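Lecture 7 notes. Example A: sequence first, then its structure tokens.
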Amino acid sequence: MQKQDLRKEYLRQRKALSEQVVEGFSRKIHDWFFRSFAVHSFATIHTFLPIKHNNEVDTWLIIKTLQKDFAADIVIPKSHPNGTMTNYLLTEKTVLEESNLKIIEPNETQNSELRTQNSKIDLVLIPLLCFDKKGYRVGYGKGYYDRFLAECRPDVMKIGLSLFEPVEEIAIDEFDVKMDYCITPNKIWSFL
């Protein structure tokens, strides 16, 4: 199936989910993550902040557990109109703001000392609309994460978070970056 068709269909399906269902699925994904990965072995973990009006996986559940029980640095992205992202440490001092796309992001000016190089990141939690059984994903179509992942170390662990199980196959482009794993409410898919 073509990406634009999958994008429309899974945006529709996700928006049809109730807040309670998204929260329940997000809790299951949180539990799979902490039960199945050696989280303590990662020094720096990148995660997206959820876009609530798009019913994204609530990564705040994961962030709060990381902050409470683990010593890892948490970094979050700031997207730019040119299709790139920069990353900033998430601390009690991090100033967050809502972008014109209604995405919660770090304020670049007020967080400049918290900027983190991609080379320091050990694990990336990746947003997506859907994914296939080979480990490729469909996002919103702007290519932010494919560009970002291409700039990370080759050994960075790439874990997608999905509210839905995979489709059979996605028509991929040469710049698409394959995930190592994808966590759904029902299981962890491995692509290694």
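Example B, a different protein, same format:
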Amino acid sequence: MARLLLYIGLFFSSLSYCQIGQYNNFPTMRPSHILDEKLTNISFAFSLRVLESDYNGPLIRLRRDSDNAQQDFGWDDNDIVDVTAIDAWRGAANVFVVTWYDQSGLGRNAIQNTNAFQPRFITDPTRPYFFGDGNNDRLDINTSIQVLTNAGVNGSVFTVLYSTSDNQFSFGTRQPGVNRNRWSIHVNWTNNRVYFDSGICCSDPVRWASNGNNQWQQFSFIRANIVQTIRRSGTILRTGNYTLGRCTATNGAGILYSNGANREFATNRFTELIMYSMDINLTDIQEIEQDQVDFWNL
């Protein structure tokens, strides 16, 4: 009898275990990306990787020069734009950027519909990028700088780019015909300085910091109500009070040039560009910076 009771107990114990095993006690976790829970006050989010878990659109639209055909491309299992698919589609042709899609949900895409002005795209499997020729290549963000910033003052920009030296505007805008009225970034100018002008140029010395050329770098440009800061890979390069007025231009922003008169086009390579219309909190700044550095192996 004791042995029978033991067998019965083992049977029900086994049955109970099997029933429990049918439930998913550890469901697959939602993928995590750096902009999850970080979309408040965002202006746009461009990257050659996926940045936000709910985003389900393409990353980039390319044109191949063999027949001028265009196609959208998403990302591969590594979260980076699908360079294998791009290479298969382009064959021996060169490819150029038509649209860099905004992942913020606001639809503020960076676009260039004129073939001759489109930056060339390079299918580097580790760090894909596009670059400017320094003559006329550019992408337009057709949203007023007053909206992209907080009325021409506050803003936060996080970028992964390759620094070069030229009379160039890497990102931003300035009022047509009024060179000093600008919200713009230069990486680098011909004197090997990175510049950040978040209003009426030029509030020295807080607007510039020394910087090396011909290398991939992570930069953050933060403008609070008064204080302006240039950061590189989490380290402050320059900070202080910006003593001049706010930018009052109303035109949109440009990538690889300033969207205004007297444009100086850039030769930078771009992989990622994120912007907020406010000076976001330090914890989020540090998390975005570290994620960019780690993901892109900078």
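Note on Example B: Residues 2-21 form the longest helix (20 residues). Residues 47-131 form one domain.
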